[in-house]
Amino acid sequence: MGGFGHQCSHRGLPSRIMRLGIDLDGVVANFNAGWIAFYNDEFGTAIPMDAVDSWDAIPGLTHFPSMGAFWRWAEHLNGASLFRHLDTFPGAVDTLWRLVKRGHEIVILTTKPHWAIHDTFAWISEQQLPTREVHILDDKWRIECDVYLDDAPHNVYRIHRQRPDRVVVRFVRPWNHPVPGTHDVETWDQFEALVSKLDG
Ligand SMILES: [Mg+2]
Question: 79 C-alpha vs ligand 1 centroid, how far in Å?
Fold first, then answer.
């Protein structure tokens, strides 16, 4: 008998196998700590790692007059783009592996500039994220998932609006805010507990 796919008869597996749509930056990848470390090193500044407290904070914290100028800088850092150099948040990768071993599918849904596509695939591989499916796109709601986890206020809002029957989860960060009808988690442990509650 096949032990893979959507059979749920094995002991210890949940009764409901779910597709979990997982964002990268601000959820799995510590984007802000990454750019701040490079920036402080290159320009001799001392921007605190937790300085970002709004979605559009970067021009106000740096000498870059626009996000366009920031991205031009972020494209070339140590032989790759910024996205190749990011650390993961504590618990993120371990939790994703436990969710996969529980039977769920990790679907990566991430928005990236075109010049970061190859670094994104390389980073996912280097970090050993347990995913068989990666989408690099703007409109994340187009990819059908049972649960969506994101930190971007506009993504949480849009996914919930387009797929009101699905579970949309905001990873609570200083740069986002509650969206009615969606769930909040503050840690990866809380996300794992939420999925466990849904899949029982
Ligand atoms: Mg994000």
Answer: 24
